[in-house]
């Protein structure tokens, strides 16, 4: 079993510390998929525009080579401070990528070694079957013989370009946020191009992660059923709650004192006893939901849950918990098979 990240870019590469030679950590596996060996299939249109491979843009079957293409884009950026493919118009950007239309312009590339350019060329090969693999890349002279092949010169121009590139990225991100906030709070018509509803829009065409419409709809479905489950909990509706839970559901929660709970009897106790004494209104909010789709029939959602309620003295209170729930679809219905909740024991059932 292997993993295809599908969203490799500089922002998702983190250093473990500020020390020289610190380990590089890979972040944000929200779009990652598991594949069997060298499996190639159409897994959906997902990634960040400037780092998408030609096969994804052509909607061809794809696999691990898409990550090698993205690595080629990243290496290009790290060497000179700007991307190999760039255009404010996303259609023209995609045409560049599908044609493999990049070069090594002077003067920035004059001092870059031929071996570095060769590795980039092998990573940015249009045909995925001819593209260099990760194992082959590690054996490339620029990496395996870096002490004698790779240049050790300090590239201040690249550092300056990277700073400008990052500043531009942040500025456009701020502009996009303002535009989205204005649009969301306008309360008016949605407007715009309907065919792009499945894409997280950005004026910076190379920096926003995108998902296909099917993925977006499926994630919204998981958020909706989670909200319905929370509503059943807030209303003390054990009957509705049980319909949304697998009979063998497992759970870790503070009330169980660190023990794994299986089945619904443990939860029934809180519904029957706590709600018989507490019928005051409860308001629940789900914050920052993150959904990971695991095939067509399973999904995992993680979020922060804010619960507002009145205590026994009628005083308003707020409780917060961090929750992860695993959903599985059986016969067309989503059911919880496992959940994990952290935080202090709550006054309300879960």
From TrEMBL:
Keyword Phosphoprotein: yes
Primary residence: membrane
Single annotated GO MF: calmodulin binding
A GO CC term assigned to this protein in UniProt: sarcoplasmic reticulum membrane
UniProt keyword terms in alphabetical order: Calmodulin-binding, Kinase, Phosphoprotein, Sarcoplasmic reticulum, Serine/threonine-protein kinase, Transferase
Subcellular location: Sarcoplasmic reticulum membrane
Protein name per its UniProtKB record: calcium/calmodulin-dependent protein kinase
């Amino acid at each position: 079993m292997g993993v295809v990240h599908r969203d490799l870019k500089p922002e998702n590469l983190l250093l473990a510390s500020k020390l020289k030679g610190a380990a590089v950590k890979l972040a944000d596996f929200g779009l990652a998929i598991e594949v069997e060996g060298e499996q190639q299939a159409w897994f959906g249109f997902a990634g960040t525009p400037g780092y998408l491979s030609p096969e994804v843009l052509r909607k061809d079957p794809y696999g691990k080579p898409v990550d090698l293409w993205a690595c080629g884009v990243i290496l290009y950026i790290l060497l000179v401070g700007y991307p190999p493919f760039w255009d404010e118009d996303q259609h023209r950007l995609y045409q560049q990528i599908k044609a493999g239309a990049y070069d090594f312009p002077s003067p920035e590339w004059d001092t870059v070694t031929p071996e570095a350019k060769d590795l980039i060329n092998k990573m940015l090969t249009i045909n995925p079957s001819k593209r260099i693999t990760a194992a082959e890349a590690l054996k490339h002279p620029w990496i395996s013989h870096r002490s004698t092949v790779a240049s050790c010169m300090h590239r201040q121009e690249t550092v300056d370009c990277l700073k400008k590139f990052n500043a531009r990225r942040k500025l456009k991100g701020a502009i996009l946020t303002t535009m989205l906030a204005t649009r969301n709070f306008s309360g008016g018509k949605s407007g715009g191009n309907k065919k792009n509803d499945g894409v997280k829009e950005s004026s910076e065409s190379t920096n926003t992660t995108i998902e296909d419409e099917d993925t977006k709809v499926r994630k919204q479905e998981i958020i909706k059923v989670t909200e319905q489950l929370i509503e059943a909990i807030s209303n003390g509706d054990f009957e509705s709650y049980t319909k949304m839970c697998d009979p063998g559901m497992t759970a870790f929660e503070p009330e169980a004192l660190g023990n794994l709970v299986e089945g619904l009897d443990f939860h029934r106790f809180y519904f029957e006893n706590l709600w018989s004494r507490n019928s005051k209104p409860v308001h629940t909010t789900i914050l920052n939901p993150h959904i990971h789709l695991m095939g067509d029939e399973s999904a995992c959602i993680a979020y922060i849950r804010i619960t507002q309620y009145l205590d026994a003295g009628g005083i308003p209170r707020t409780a917060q918990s961090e929750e992860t729930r695993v959903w599985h679809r059986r016969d067309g219905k989503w059911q919880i098979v496992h959940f994990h909740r952290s935080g202090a024991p709550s006054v309300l059932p879960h």
